[in-house]
Amino acid sequence: MEQNSENKVQSKASEERQVQQVLARYTRAADQLNGKVASDLFVPDGKVEVYYGRGESRELLFVLSGQAEIENAMSNLMKPHPDRGWSHHTTHDYIIEVNGDHATIDAQFIRFDSVGEIRPENGWPEGTLGLMGKVTPTESGYYQPTLQKINGEWKIVTLVILHDLTFAIPGK
Amino acid sequence: MEQNSENKVQSKASEERQVQQVLARYTRAADQLNGKVASDLFVPDGKVEVYYGRGESRELLFVLSGQAEIENAMSNLMKPHPDRGWSHHTTHDYIIEVNGDHATIDAQFIRFDSVGEIRPENGWPEGTLGLMGKVTPTESGYYQPTLQKINGEWKIVTLVILHDLTFAIPGK
Amino acid sequence: MEQNSENKVQSKASEERQVQQVLARYTRAADQLNGKVASDLFVPDGKVEVYYGRGESRELLFVLSGQAEIENAMSNLMKPHPDRGWSHHTTHDYIIEVNGDHATIDAQFIRFDSVGEIRPENGWPEGTLGLMGKVTPTESGYYQPTLQKINGEWKIVTLVILHDLTFAIPGK
Known about the structure:
Helix content of chain A: 10-25%
Low-confidence stretches of chain A: 1-10
Oligomer: homotrimer
Mean pLDDT of chain A: 91
Largest interface: B-C, 47 and 36 residues
Order of helices and strands of chain A: HHHEEHEEEEE
Number of helices of chain A: 4
Largest sheet of chain A: 6 strands, mixed
Strand content of chain A: over 45%
């Protein structure tokens, strides 16, 4: 078993990894529909700006301002998971820039929704074995948060979300 | 071409990246159904614990104990790929904690299965061009390994796998 | 707000992250069908080698040689996105090796294509709300670039792309 002082220095996560892990925690909160955990990742007057678009063109859909609005939107306004259902907001291909106590991330995201099959009343028939259900990609786009390091902790100041898919608002 | 001593120091992968790359190698072994390569990533008495569930609730499905059981399960008990088929176990949104020679990872995973179309007997008709076949997400969940650094190499002690989808066992 | 000298040292991205971010920029260029941006990530005589296969066996499909060919292929030969369509080339499970000013990456990739639904002429009906459209995985395989650091910047020397799916060439 190796353990030396060099080792201990290295095991401190880099700023880039600390920044990336804030977004990793955000995706888990989104999958748990846990607005409290999500909003705690933001500064008190943090914002979520949701756009339709990619590349140069984008159209603002709505803004959540402050931790209370962010918490409420995620806990109460997102569609709950169906029975035996779950989601995975996954992020990819990070471009991270850290300048002192400011940082930006540009990440692709894909959301997947999973639904497990229901166990038959009399148990699984012969010939079935293993995982039963469906995993479907349902959303895609980009997360572009800006972050600030406050008292040693990275917090999201503004999370820009760009959606590829059309966003429907009834009557509009 | 730049090359200096600072450069050489930086090119040593961080502990976090070394830890992440153990899981990267595990996913490739799983896609190759290569139990030998996979089990070598574990300590001799390493374990794989497979659960149904996410968040707080989880139900233990089965445990593989020791390198021999892990090797056998991956090489002989996983369903072989169909003709022109392959899989990709992909992992996302790492949360890594390293403390000296101990480490934990929490990662999301999605499994994809791909199957290429068969080339027609007389070649591809006019109008076809490019990639032919299908890629389907088939599994999702979390990998939560704990690792230990032994003689300078990170090894998996226990790999907890949480599956979202229902796991069918005939007659149960 | 914390900012000190230790902080500034840490905020320099590691060689591994710099290398990873070259591939992250490549995936964005591919999604924008922007051959200029993509070819600038390569050395002047850089190459893209495209294969069918995985694991040990692979069959060479075609090679793009030099920045001009790479730029032209991405800008003019890739299928344009449909109306309200976009793609995401996503990469996963990096194994990165850096030796001085040389580096290699082995990454899994999945391509997704998204198409948003068209807004009805008279607006969205009651009962619709949120994202409308479809996200589909369409390609999978491996990216295996080799890179070289030149004047302080990592550039791709050769990008090996392994496709899982069958590649159709009419008449062949």
